[in-house]
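User: Here's a structure from my thesis project, written as structure tokens. My advisor, Dr. K., wants to see whether a designed sequence matches the one we expressed. Can you design one independently, without my sequence as a hint?
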């Protein structure tokens, strides 16, 4: 009998899930005549162990995302893998922003000017350049997604200008979360609109981060360059500890 270690079993499980998710991205891209290579998979590792991040790195994943500062800073230190690009995707408190700028490679959830100032200060102090996405509010007319945060489309240009001139920060594009339980297409169309506004201000800021485990196909069809996938790769998240 071949006895497999717990780690090997977990590695096999993640590898199989990863293959399935990559196949979904491939199919979604090809169905709208896009090159699958133009869609980057960001693995959302929040609440999972550092070992899972190491497994993902070994399987070729380069982008990982965390949403809580204390957990992220600990995991970043434990994993200590220079190949990885760490995204911060949580609602960020202004008083923690400078600390996040000391290890995050990119903050995908910037939605207000106070956050830009705090991140810039932290990046400069740490002698780093931190990439920034503007999180755009995709709340519907019914306010379905209001609690998911984000900058109103009308304020995107002003925020983009501010990020563009903030020392230590590099504007890279937009991010959004479609409201749950309804057709995500109108939300992703609104995000595409915001992406156009940002590209007019900085043509190099081309990232469009949209789509999660449940709606990545629609996001890719709407032009997402990055999808953020947790559950479909790592399984159900452990409860908050
Ligand atoms: C948790 C999270 C995801 C991943 O969601 P899944 O449904 O597990 O794929 C994506 N984006 C953000 C901002 C998240 O907080």
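Assistant: Designed independently from the structure alone:
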């Amino acid at each position: 009998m071949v006895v497999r270690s717990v780690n090997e079993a977990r590695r096999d499980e993640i590898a199989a899930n990863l293959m399935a998710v990559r196949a979904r991205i491939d199919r979604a891209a090809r169905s709208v005549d896009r090159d699958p290579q133009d869609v980057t998979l960001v693995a959302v590792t929040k609440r999972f162990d550092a070992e899972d991040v190491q497994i993902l790195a070994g399987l070729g994943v380069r982008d990982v995302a965390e949403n809580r500062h204390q957990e992220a800073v600990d995991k970043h230190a434990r994993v200590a893998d220079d190949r990885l690009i760490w995204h911060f995707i949580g609602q960020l408190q202004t008083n923690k922003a400078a600390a996040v700028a000391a290890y995050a490679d990119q903050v995908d959830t910037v939605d207000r000017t106070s956050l830009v100032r705090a991140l810039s200060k932290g990046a400069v102090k740490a002698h780093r350049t931190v990439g920034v996405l503007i999180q755009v509010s995709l709340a519907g007319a019914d306010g379905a997604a209001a609690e998911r945060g984000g900058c109103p489309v009308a304020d995107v240009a002003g925020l983009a200008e501010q990020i563009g001139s903030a020392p230590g920060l590099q504007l890279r594009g937009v991010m959004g979360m479609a409201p749950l339980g309804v057709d995500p297409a109108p939300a992703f169309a609104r995000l595409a609109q915001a992406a156009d506004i940002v590209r007019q201000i900085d043509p190099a800021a081309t990232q469009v981060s949209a789509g999660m485990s449940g709606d990545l196909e629609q996001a890719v069809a709407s032009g997402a360059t990055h999808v953020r996938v947790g559950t479909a790769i790592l399984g159900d998240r452990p409860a908050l500890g």
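When you compare it with your expressed construct, this may help: The mean pLDDT is 94.
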